[in-house]
UniProtKB/TrEMBL annotation:
Domain of life of the source: Bacteria
Position of the signal peptide: 1-19
InterPro entries per record: AmpC-like (IPR050491), Beta-lactam-related (IPR001466), Beta-lactam/transpept-like (IPR012338)
Location of the Beta-lactamase-related domain: 30-339
Protein name (Swiss-Prot/TrEMBL): Beta-lactamase family protein
Keyword field: Signal
Signal recorded as keyword: yes
């Protein structure tokens, strides 16, 4: 049975009490995650935050197959593209302080940014409207040395044009968020990983979260990545692009992401007006909404504002869905390639909502989103 079918069967079979209060949430969630639960499988951690409180927190499977270490809510997974909301927050902190403007041209802020891309602004990078080519297109699978954020400048310089004039369309670009990490370093004078630690993670109450740099920092309670193979799961923890921080290099646990979610709902890091701006996608010249704010997909789910993001990288697949007005957030982290954690996250969220979601996640229709 597919994950989609399983979610539908589970939801249909659960007796629900008053609206937003599932009668038996633990059993329902266990059923949804049964493919991750076992003594020989990579795992998953899930948390549900409702009305400011953790109402469910579970873990399944193993964080390390080799060491037989079980996954727990404290296991730290590589977030992949869930990292983008932290990169966006770092930029917005500099904007709040008046050290950067959203309409600044990147070429005027960041030395070495290709002159041919002079019309690209900070806001374009945040909203995936820059038209930058993805640096992964220029990195062979046999690349012997891992690419880092600084290398992205040289890679995107190989093309002297953008996919479209900046600001006129939307195309998901990991390059944009790697460049934003470099902008943070340039403007703050502090290495990006340290800036995140000092200005985002610590103030946000995220005690074990780290923008991981091999040989520089350590990941405590680390979950290792795997992929399905002919005879079972095989290690698949690193790729040539796994060391790029701005677009996907953060490790965190669902426990720390609870603290992050609370910070998002207060002025702990960003002011209310700044958060509102981050959660508002631009209207494109053709009159359509891009459905991407600053580090978040944003869409309308039957009259409910829905914030979401997925993350896919070597050996990890993750998802977060947040309904600000309903005060509901669901986070799913997994240490295996493949699967559909976004379907699981939405299935779990539907248990607490007064009616199931009636729209697919916006990333499923956005060009190049991965």
């Amino acid at each position: 049975m597919s994950v989609h079918s399983l979610a539908a069967v589970v939801l249909a079979s659960i007796l629900v009490g008053c609206a937003g209060t599932p009668a038996n949430p633990r059993n329902a969630v266990d059923s949804l995650f049964r493919d991750y639960d076992g003594p020989d499988r990579p795992g998953a951690s899930v948390v549900v935050i409702h009305d400011g409180q953790v109402v469910l927190r579970r873990a399944y499977g193993l964080a390390s197959l080799e060491k037989r270490e079980p996954a727990t809510p404290d296991s730290n997974y590589r977030l992949a593209s869930l990292s983008k909301q932290f990169t966006a927050t770092a930029i917005l902190l500099l904007v709040q302080e008046g050290r950067l403007r959203l309409d600044d041209r990147v070429a005027d802020v960041l030395p070495g940014f290709p002159p041919a891309l002079r019309e690209v602004c900070i806001q374009h990078l945040l909203q995936h409207t820059s038209g930058l080519w993805d640096y992964e297109d220029f990195v062979p699978a046999t690349q012997p040395v891992q690419v880092k954020d600084r290398d992205v400048l040289a890679l995107v310089s190989r093309v002297d044009r953008t996919y479209f004039p900046p600001g006129t369309a939307v195309r998901y670009s990991n390059s944009g968020y790697a460049v934003l990490a470099l902008v943070v370093e340039q403007v703050s004078g502090v290495p990006f990983a340290r800036f995140l630690h000092e200005r985002v993670f610590v103030p946000g109450g995220m005690r074990s979260t780290v923008a991981h740099e091999e040989g520089v920092s350590q990941v405590s309670r680390r979950a290792y990545g795997y992929a399905p193979g002919p005879g079972g799961f095989v290690p698949r923890d690193q790729s040539p692009t796994s060391a790029v921080l701005g677009d996907g290099g953060i490790y965190a646990s669902v426990v720390d992401l609870v603290a992050w979610d609370r910070a998002l709902d207060t002025d702990a890091l960003l002011r209310t007006e700044t958060r509102k701006q981050a959660w508002t996608p631009p209207v494109l010249p053709d009159g359509t909404s891009s459905r991407y704010g600053f580090g978040w997909f944003v869409d309308d789910d039957g009259g409910r504002r829905r914030l979401s993001h997925h993350g896919e990288t070597c050996g990890f697949t993750n998802a977060i869905v947040k309904y600000p007005e309903q005060r509901l957030t669901v986070i799913v982290l997994t240490n295996r390639a493949g699967g559909a954690p976004w379907t699981l996250a939405q299935g779990v969220a539907d248990l607490w909502l007064d009616r199931p979601a009636n729209r697919p996640w916006p990333f499923e229709t956005l060009p190049n989103a991965h």
